[in-house]
Design brief:
Layout lengths: L2 H10 L4 H8 L3 H8 L1 H4 L5 H13 L3 H9 L1
Helix pairs in contact: 1-5, 2-3
Length: 71
């Protein structure tokens, strides 16, 4: 997944980079690095990419995931 695809996917999920970090259990710095990976040589881990793609395809809003997991 390219940084542009990552940013577009976050946009489609109505998710900020900070929100993605919270959802995926990584630091905000890590989520920001994924968005600019072309500059830094870092790619989003495949499991995180697949999870975000699944949420988008299944039309599951990330807040619903938080509600489910936080209970």
């Amino acid at each position: 997944m390219t940084p542009t695809e990552y940013r577009d996917l976050l946009s489609a999920l109505d998710l900020t980079q900070a929100g993605a970090a919270r959802l995926l259990g990584v630091s905000g710095d890590e989520a920001r690095r994924w968005a600019s990976a072309a500059k830094r040589g870092r790619n989003i881990p495949k499991p995180a990419e697949r999870f975000l793609r699944f949420l988008a395809a299944a039309k599951i809003h990330p807040e619903d995931v938080h509600k489910l997991l936080d209970n």
